[in-house]
Amino acid sequence: MLSLSCKAAIKAVIYLGSKSESGEKSGIKEIAKFINENEHTLGKILQKLVRHRIIFSSKGPNGGFYITEKKMNQSIIHIIEAIDGKDVFVQCGLGLSRCSDSRPCPFHHDFKPVRESFKKMCTEKKIMDLYQNVNEGHAFLMR
After folding, report:
1. Confidence of residue 55 (pLDDT cuts 50, 70, 90)
2. All domains of the chain in start order, with CATH
3. Is the Cβ–Cβ distance between 32 and 38 less than 8 Å?
4. pTM of the predicted model, to two decimals?
5. Do residues 105 and 93 make contact, with C-beta atoms less than 8 angstroms apart?
6. For 26, which DSSP code?
7. How would residue 22 be classed by pLDDT, with cut points 50, 70 and 90?
């Protein structure tokens, strides 16, 4: 359902959230190493998140990527929409372009409630909810 880039974006934002309480900014190399992603690809993803004002970056010797307290209260759906677009929550489970209630694919009636439930979860879950679980040791970002 989510692209690999979107999954990497979510992991990166959760990582930045986990560092935010200490006021730390993180570089691409650090983030990529921790979440086990390619630096070049991650750099493009992070810049896209900056353009969508989900995270921020600063240059210079004390620069890096970071997230503000206000932005930590935003829903995960904002990250998904920034990377994969809004269509991810209406796409066919088999990737067919003409799937609908009136012209369903073989997965349609089973996949539709799963997709709707996933959208609800992404709307309700805040960045803060996810990084707190990581900080408390209840969830992990590493494979």
Report:
1. very high
2. 4-135 (1.10.10.10)
3. yes
4. 0.90
5. yes
6. B
7. confident
